[in-house]
Design brief:
Blueprint: H1 49-57, E1 70-77, E2 83-84, E3 87-88, H2 93-97, E4 103-106, H3 112-120, E5 126-131, E6 138-151, E7 175-190, H4 191-204, H5 212-215, E8 221-225, H6 226-234
Parallel strand pairs: 1-5
Antiparallel strand pairs: 1-8, 2-3, 4-7, 5-6, 6-7
Region (Disordered): 1-61
GO cellular component, one term: nucleus
Subcellular location: Nucleus
Length: 241
């Protein structure tokens, strides 16, 4: 039995509480191709935010910017009911926890850049589960990739809201991965808090300065660098402001 689609990319909307939503360009449609890892991810442990993080990291910065490497992910899903072509696309982290073995496939991605990110995912890599398009968007938990990219069967299902009549079984356009629940974050990390750090880091060169959550906010699949992942994870140890 197919699970509800995670997040539509074809006509994605910005998070309701994101004040800069009007600045975001509409996500690329499937007509326009865009070009755009199996180790356990270390968990951030900083308990005093950016200042402590900077202190522990600046010693090995080396003075030179290294090439950006993405090894973690952020997956957006809608926790509130919303019908798309008569199908409820709601899928919260509690819905994931209720699946057999707390595992499901991440289907319904219909944007080329997001699809390419799916195809780049490696077995064992971790991702933030992000509640999107809801009253208070933000990170609620961590999942891991348990099966690398393979054809998304919903593209061939005429009853599915993400059916694509132009895709062929001999050369499928769209992919999905399997994800498994790892744990809830120690607290909910709201978009507003992450954005405050992003703005501060844009000014002082911190790890979230180029975070795709704010530079390509409409994408439902987003890569994270090790530094971005570690810093955001460290926020779960902070008391909410």
């Amino acid at each position: 039995m197919p699970w509800p689609s995670r997040k539509r990319d074809k006509a994605a909307v910005a998070d309701k509480k994101e004040p800069d939503a009007k600045m975001a360009k509409t996500e690329e449609s499937p007509d326009k191709e865009e070009e755009e890892k199996s180790t356990k991810a270390p968990a951030g442990t900083s308990k005093s935010g950016w200042k402590n993080w900077k202190k522990t990291k600046e010693s090995d910065a080396g003075g030179e910017e290294s090439k950006i490497t993405y090894c973690h992910w952020l997956l957006k899903s809608e926790p509130e009911s919303r019908l798309e072509k008569g199908v409820d696309v709601k899928f919260s982290i509690d819905d994931l926890k209720a699946q057999p073995n707390q595992t499901t496939f991440w289907d319904g991605v219909r944007n080329y850049q997001a699809r390419n990110f799916l195809r780049a995912m490696k077995l064992g890599q971790q991702a933030f589960f992000y509640h999107s398009n809801c009253k208070e968007p933000g990170i609620v938990g961590i999942v891991k990739i348990v099966k690398e990219a393979y054809p998304d069967h919903t593209q061939f299902d005429q009853k599915d809201p993400h059916y694509d009549s132009s895709s062929r079984k001999e050369n499928p356009k769209w992919s999905m991965v399997d994800v498994q629940f790892v744990r809830m974050t120690k607290r909910f990390i709201p978009l507003s808090e992450i954005k405050a750090h992003h703005l501060a880091h844009k000014a002082d060169g911190g790890p979230l300065k180029n975070m795709m959550l704010f530079t390509r906010q409409r994408l439902s699949i987003q890569p994270l660098t090790q530094e971005e992942f570690d810093f955001v994870l460290s926020l779960e140890e902070e008391k909410p402001h």
